[in-house]
Amino acid sequence: MENAIPSDGVLVKNARLAVAAELRKKKILKQPIAKYDPKTGKVYLLHSDGTCEEVGETRRARYSERKH
């Protein structure tokens, strides 16, 4: 009996397949899909009719430097 550690590749492949299946499901059910733009740091909801709605943005400062 071997104590070989399985590759992370299998887990990554299955996670990507699960995300793709969920995105297909949301498109079929006409539910909005959340998208993140790393350049601007903004979060959007893409609706099935093609409209795009901004719902939030990320903060770039360190946690200790944030102003509440």
Keyphrases for this structure?
alpha+beta; 3 strands; 24% strand; flat; 68 residues; 31% helix; 1 helix; 3-stranded antiparallel beta sheet; single chain
Q: Let me know the average pLDDT.
A: 88
Q: Give the biggest sheet.
A: 3 strands, antiparallel
Distance between the termini: 56 Å
Multimeric organization? single chain
Q: In sequence order, what are the helices and strands, one letter per element?
A: HEEE
Which spans have pLDDT < 50 for at least 5 consecutive residues? none
Strand elements, count: 3
Query: DSSP strand (E) fraction?
Result: 15-25%
**What class, by secondary structure content?**
alpha+beta
* Shape descriptor: flat
Annotation field: number of helices? 1
The share of residues in helices is 25-40%
User: Radius of gyration in whole Å, from Cα?
Assistant: 18 Å
| Spatial ordering of strands, largest sheet | 1-2-3
What does this structure look like?
- This protein has 68 residues and is α+β, with helices and mostly antiparallel strands.
- It has a domain at 31-60.
- The protein has one helix at residues 8-28; strands at 33-37, 42-46, 52-57.
- The protein has a three-stranded antiparallel beta sheet.
- A hairpin with a 5-residue loop joins strand 2 and strand 3 (52-57).
- 0% of the residues are buried.
